[in-house]
Amino acid sequence: MIPMKKSLLLLIFVPAFVCAQSARMPLVEYFTNTSCTNCPAWTQALDQSLTNVGRANVAVVLVHNANPSPNDPFYQDNNAESNARTSYYAVQGDPDLFVDGTNVSSNSYIEVAIQNEIKQTSSLSIALSGVRNGRSGTVNAAITSTASGQWKLFAVITETGLTYHGTNGEVTHNDVFRTTLTTWSGVDGASGHVSLPFTLGYDDNISSSDSVPWNMDSCRIVVWAQNISTKAVYQAAQIWVSQLSTSVQPTFTFATDDSLLSAPPVIDDIEAVGNIQNISGSTIYVSGVRLVDSLPDGNWTTAVCLAYCGAPSVDTVPSNPLSPNGNQQFLLHFDPDKTPASGHVIMKFYDPNNPSYSVIRQFQFKTNAPTQFLLPKARQTITSNQDTISWKTDLTGKVGLFYSTDNVSWYLIDSVDVGSGSYVWTPGFTGFNFRLKLITSEGSAVSSAFNLQSTAVYEPVPVSYTFVCSPNPANTSVNIMLTGYETKRVTLFDALGRMVYDNAIVEPLANTNIVVNTSALRSGMYYTRVYSASGVFSKPVMVMH
């Protein structure tokens, strides 16, 4: 019985020891360039993925390299270390992205790859702490590991909220790689404790000035453990430089989500809600809430809400001190007609008894305000002569405008400038239950159903007039013969309402014979429209080749 008891104890003890696992923080390494034309789509997909999973749950490093241009200022600031990391992953061109050392082949798979890693546990944990004095300090990594293989510890500094107008259209740059604290060879973390000194540097290429110091309030230290042979990343951790202890000890800490999820698409004003939880025993205050494209300069001293992009106000709650261990919401409310689709919320937290200590947090913000048709309205009857379609949007560029009568088959009307907000449509036909659709980069916007009714006068016309289109069907030409009309203009439209012929008559005559060349027109139904002193008249013409 004694040996059996010993065996039983071993069976209980060994699994408990081996299965000790830690929650996993994935590492995203994204190789990009300010001249890379395909990178904006990947950057947007990454930003949306981080918003969906929570930015605080993922460590991110954006390495700017020389693909396709060595003139990228973020690459020029540290080209040697950028080149080394690019070579390590054998990156041939940008964009290129790795999640925990594994390449992601499509930007549509970024969130899936991140989620898959978050669902896994890790045999290694990393806890970060440290101290700072001015722009220098030491970050401490406490490591607990049962991971096998030859792994090393890596640490870098990144900076977020940088503004630079790249030739690819990107302006705001987050999580930009600045420097390594360990070199790309890594350091041994088997002892369970690693201390790494750091000093925040200066940017010599992004500004016209000689040098710009990295913003301490927007710098993170990112640390991870990676197998140097397989490239597999076992665990990552991150900490804001501003969170490191200083010679003036903070009297409070706080917890909050590191990102704001997109507000749902609605027709009216947009609202987005976040939570602030004070997990300390001290009262904290919010000194300001601001929507901006980059971190602002200067110090904020009062608890105020600042206006943004022409909006009359941006409301914020709480407006009162947040009591110890309290939890409150803050609400952003604004008109999507006056604000862009995305931006950032910046909040500064401070202790009134210790004003020299504060913490700044930046949150991604996206309204996802949809493109919406304004005209025609639901069940409105508009003429088939000429009507203005209008919509509101925060998008720009050329998009397709389509129509349908069954909401299944869609026909292209024209390629329109979506930023203009309007388009003059001349359908040339009538019917019921029409819908319009704009296909944009954010999806499709569909109008309410409406009706088309012609203002043209169809046969029978007054007996003193004759209006003949012959031959009908037509092959290479059609004769439009008019008697009794003081004809001013003759036009021809296809079934989509596009004008294919236009003849303005300088000296209107009572009797007119016009020959229209139809040899280049596609077979199908067309509509002749005649403008005269007596009214507007229309007849269908079939073209058959």
Can you describe what's shown?
The chain contains 5 helices and 40 strands. The protein has 4 domains: 24-243, Glutaredoxin, CATH 3.40.30; 255-366, Sandwich (Immunoglobulin-like), CATH 2.60.40; 372-453, Immunoglobulin-like (Sandwich), CATH 2.60.40; 466-543, Sandwich (Immunoglobulin-like), CATH 2.60.40. The strands form 12 sheets. Strands 26, 28, 29, 31, 32 and 33 form a 6-stranded mixed β-sheet that branches. The chain has a 4-stranded mixed β-sheet with strand order 3-2-4-5, with helices on both faces. Mean pLDDT is 75; it is low at 1-19, 256-272, 291-296, 299-319, 333-341, 365-369 and 456-461. Helix content is 10%, strand content 44%. It is mainly beta and 545 residues long. Helix 2 packs parallel to helix 5. Strand 23 and strand 24 form a beta hairpin.
Structural class by sheet pairing and helices: mainly beta
Count of DSSP H/I helices: 5
Q: What is the gyration radius calculated from CA atoms?
A: 33 Å
Kindly, what is the distance between the CA atoms of the first and last residues, rounded to a whole number of angstroms? 100 Å
CATH class of the largest domain: Alpha Beta
CATH architecture of the largest domain: 3-Layer(aba) Sandwich
Give the strand tally.
40
* Shape type: elongated
Please indicate the count of domains.
Answer: 4
Biggest sheet: strands, sense, closure?
A: 6 strands, mixed
Helix content bin: 10-25%
Which blocks of ≥5 consecutive residues have pLDDT under 50? 1-19, 256-272, 291-296, 299-319, 333-341, 365-369, 456-461
Going by CATH, the homologous superfamily of the largest domain would be: Glutaredoxin
CATH topology of the largest domain: Glutaredoxin
